[in-house]
UniProtKB/TrEMBL annotation:
Protein name: Glycosyltransferase involved in cell wall bisynthesis
Organism encoding this protein: Rhodococcus maanshanensis
Glycosyltransferase 2-like domain span: 14-123
CDD domains recorded: Glyco_tranf_GTA_type
Pfam families listed in its UniProt record: Glycos_transf_2 (PF00535)
Keyword tags: Transferase
Molecular function per GO: hexosyltransferase activity
Length: 314
């Protein structure tokens, strides 16, 4: 790309795939191999010493990192090792549709310069046979990322999304604003997008209305966790959203931390999240409604579990 967004030659694209060695890794790589826009290299950054089962392809480069490094540092490791002018990210349990890269790069061609991030809609599959298309609303080209992602406008998730496996951007952006900031956990993707937008006011986010990938949601993501991570999510919101509007901050504090509390079936976590939201923000009615309904859901889950135990004993 030139400074005016006119492509002189097709850019070299490097694909970065962090992995913990899931069996779905080969499927993800095959979806890259099947692109109508040929990529230059496929960098697989492995957070495991175990053997990886990969298709044969001379473009595949395997990089190893110490176990437990985290997805953000994995992505940065791949970006630093890449040779392409453009980076495309893919998680090891997701996959791309064949025209994904070509359509995104064609959309960028109309004048975004060198400060752009491309995304798209994606098909969300799971748990079980559930299928839906997210996001319902596309982000505005210069819309604040935090406003787009965290302001709640109804009781459903999926209204706003910039999913990692849809992201494509010039490599230099990630060399200027790195992914490996430990303070970004547990939301390294939105953290990075917010930091990029703050560092580059001219940034354009170009989200294609087409469905260009598949985001697989495993049943384990909704199962009960023995660890309540509510405080971790609250800390992230207070740290990263301190400069956002009270509504955005309050809506976030009433939703993402509450989801973590539901996963752990923690009413204490829900109460802590609502209290923090009211004290440090101004949550809207939809976010507050989501938090209250989540508390009811925890009570029902506990009751159902208790009935199951009682039934086993009878």
């Amino acid at each position: 790309m030139t400074g005016r967004g006119v492509r002189t030659v097709p850019p070299r694209v490097s694909v970065v795939i962090p992995t913990v060695g899931r069996p779905t890794l080969a499927r993800a790589v095959r979806s890259v191999q099947g692109q109508t826009y040929r990529v230059a290299e496929i960098l697989v950054v492995a957070d495991t010493d175990a053997p990886l089962h990969l298709p044969v392809d001379e473009r595949i480069v395997v990089l190893r990192t110490p176990p437990g490094t985290g997805s953000g540092p994995h992505r940065q490791r791949g970006i630093e090792a890449s040779s392409g002018a453009v980076i495309a990210l893919l998680d090891d349990d997701d996959e791309w549709h064949p025209d994904k890269l070509r359509r995104q790069l064609d959309a960028v061609e109309s004048g975004a310069g060198d400060r752009w991030i491309a995304s798209s809609r994606t098909e969300v599959v799971g748990p079980g046979r559930r299928r839906r298309v997210w996001p319902r609303r596309l982000v505005g080209t210069r819309e604040p990322v935090a406003e787009y992602l965290f302001r709640f406008t109804d009781l459903r998730f999926g209204g706003a999304m910039l999913q990692t496996s849809t992201l494509c951007f010039p490599a230099e952006i990630a060399r200027e604003v790195r992914w490996d900031d430990d303070g970004d956990k547990p939301h390294d993707e939105p953290s990075w997008l917010i930091r990029v937008q703050a560092a580059m006011p001219e940034l354009r986010i170009i989200q294609s209305p087409e469905v260009l990938g598949t985001y697989h949601v495993g049943g384990e993501s909704l199962s009960r966790s023995s660890v309540d991570r509510t405080v971790e999510y609250l800390d992230w919101g207070l740290r990263h959203l301190s400069g956002e509007s009270p509504r955005v901050r309050g809506d976030y504090l009433c939703t993402s931390p509450v989801s973590a509390a539901v996963s752990a079936r923690s009413l204490t976590g829900v109460h802590r999240a609502i209290s923090t939201a009211v004290r440090h923000g101004r949550p809207g009615p939809w976010a507050l409604g989501y938090a209250v309904l989540s508390a009811v859901r925890i009570l029902l889950l506990r009751a159902w579990s208790a009935l199951g135990v009682a039934g086993d004993r009878s």
